[in-house]
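HUMAN: Spend a minute on the protein record below and explain its fold to me.
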Amino acid sequence: MTELVATSPGLFPLPDWAKSDLSDLKGHQKDDLISGDETDDIVAVYEDAREEVVADQLDAGLDRVVEGQLRWDDMLAHPLTIHDNVETGGIVRYYDNNNFYRDPQVVGDLSFSGDVAAELEAASEFAGETPLQAVLPGPYSLAELATDEYYGDEADFLAAIGDFLGGEVEAFPDHETLFLLDPSLATDAPDDDIAERVPEAIDAVAGATDADVVVHTYWDAIDEKTYAHLMDADIEAIGFDFVAGDRETTLYNINEYGAKDDVALGLADGQNTLVEDPETIRERVEWVNDQIHASEFDTAYVTTNTEPFYLPVNKHQEKLAALAAAADLESEVEA
C-alpha cells in the first residue's frame, strides 16, 4: 500500500493585494527586484503574504506546508541573485515560457547566505502541527540558470553550487521534506561528464538534512542516461511530470532502471487554470501505479507538475484543495 502525501513544489502566486502594494513599493525596473536588502515596508508585505499562503495550505488540508517563495522574483535563480558574490546581468527567458529572470553572474566564492533559511524559519511560525517542506532549486538547474565567471570549469561550478546549497540547508529549521526542483535535468540534459557528477552535487545537498529528499523534475521526461545517473543519488524520491512530460519515456525509465522507494507525482497542471477534480487526480495516481512493473512505492507525493506561480490565486487555492482531497479519498492506494 502506498501512502499518499499531498504537497506542492512551492513558488506560489502572490496574493493580489500584495502585488498591488509591492508594485507601489518596489517599482517596475530590473534593479527594483528582490536583492536581499528590502525596506521595512517591503519586508512587512512579504511577511503578511507568507502568513496568508501558509494559511491557504492549512485550509486546503495539505500534508506538507511550504514557505511559498513569494520573494523569488527570479524564480529558481533566487538563491544566487541575492548573493553578495553574484552580480545580476541582463534579463533571460525562464525556460520555455513568458517569464524572465536576471542572469546571476557568479563572480566570487559562493559562501553561506542564509536567505532561504530565514524565510523557512518565518514560515515555521505559522505552520502549526503540519510538517514543513523546504524548497530549493536542484544544483544542476541552478548551475544551468547561472553564468560562471569565477570557478572556470563546468564540473567545479556544479560542485560549488551543490556545496553552497548544502550549506544553506544546514541552517534550515526542522523540516520533514526537502524538494529540490531540477527541471533542467529533463529540459536540458547534461552531457556525459556532467551527468556523472550530478549525483554527487545532489548528495552534497541531501547529506545536509535528515529530511526526506525529493528531486523533482518537470516540463519533460528525464532521458535514459540522466535517469540512470540520477538513481545513484542518495535521495528518497524522484519527481516526474505526468502532465507535460513524455509519460512513455518516464515509465520506461522506471521499469528499466527501477525507482526510489518513494516518488513525487506531478499530476495537476501548475500552469493551466482548469482545476482537476480530486477523483481525476486519484485516478491518475492509480494509473501510474498500474504501469509500474516492480513493487509499489512506499510514499507518493501528490503535487502539481510545475511550480504554480503562473496561476491566478483563486485557481491555485482550488488546486491545493483538490490535491489534498485526492490524497484523502483513502489514506492509502494499492498498486
User: Anything to note?
Assistant: The CA atoms of residues 217 and 240 lie 6 Å apart. The mean pLDDT is 95. Residues 2-333 form a domain with the TIM Barrel fold (CATH 3.20.20.210). The chain has one domain: 2-333.
